[in-house]
Write a structure and sequence with these properties.
The protein is α/β, with parallel strands linked by helices. The protein folds into two domains: 127 residues, Rossmann fold (3-Layer(aba) Sandwich); 72 residues. The chain has twelve helices and five strands. The chain has a five-stranded parallel β-sheet with strand order 3-2-1-4-5, with helices on both faces.
Length: 216
């Protein structure tokens, strides 16, 4: 059966990861290389915090808060923003959106697929005013964010609310996330869940396109 809905995480999926834009951010802000410390799975041996996260010694949120704190301690400016994530992703010249994601979303819209976002921290990290001003915001009639919901993936409630609002059976929805725990959470409620590997992001989008019937 061809799937009829696409549900996306934001960080690392709809957006590139902070690891991928860090070099450009440093260059654009005139910062020394290495000001933003850590490249996660792009350089696991060089990121001790990432290894601690993988070993269960820190949560994903703790990893990113520490990632920001270390960069700020090294002199990364906030440029008037409340968080480093906003400063990085909203720096003029940063290409934050993952082009493979936008391509899949546009093809899905053209084919009449239902679209949604399921994220843990979009509004917290980027701010609702900025999010609502983005070109892609109206493309997603469903946007579930634990920042405002009060429940985080992988708890079942955010997934179930997204499924209900998309108005489709869970098995009819393709869900893409970069976190294996969150992918498992989607699978647990019946979503067809795909893991995005930041080292090969195109693979997940290609598989989603196939399941959505968007390939020739």
């Amino acid at each position: 059966m061809t799937a009829r809905g696409l549900l996306l995480d934001v960080g690392v999926v709809l957006f590139k990861s902070a690891w991928e834009i860090a070099d450009d951010y440093e260059r654009l802000r005139g910062l020394p290389a290495g000001t933003v410390v850590g490249r996660g799975p792009l350089d696991p041996e060089g990121d001790d915090r990432w290894r601690r996260y993988l070993e269960g010694e820190a949560t994903e949120r703790e990893y990113w808060l520490d990632f920001a704190a270390r960069a700020q301690a090294n002199g990364a400016p906030l440029d008037g923003h409340p968080t480093l994530m906003r400063a990085m992703f909203q720096t003029p010249g940063i290409e934050a959106i993952r082009p493979e994601a936008i391509d899949l979303v546009k093809r899905s819209m053209a084919a009449g697929k239902s679209l949604g976002i399921l994220t843990n921290e979009l509004m917290d990290f980027q701010g609702r005013e900025w999010v609502e001003a983005q070109e892609w915001f109206p493309w997603f009639p469903v946007l579930i964010d634990s920042t405002e919901l009060g429940m985080r993936k992988p708890a079942p409630e955010p997934y179930l609310i997204a499924i209900e609002q998309m108005g489709l059976p869970a098995s009819d929805i393709i869900f893409i996330d970069d976190n294996p725990t969150y992918v498992a959470g989607g699978q647990a409620v019946g979503l067809t869940s795909l893991l995005l590997d930041v080292n090969d992001p195109a693979a997940a989008f290609d598989e989603a396109a196939r399941l959505l019937g968007l390939t020739d």
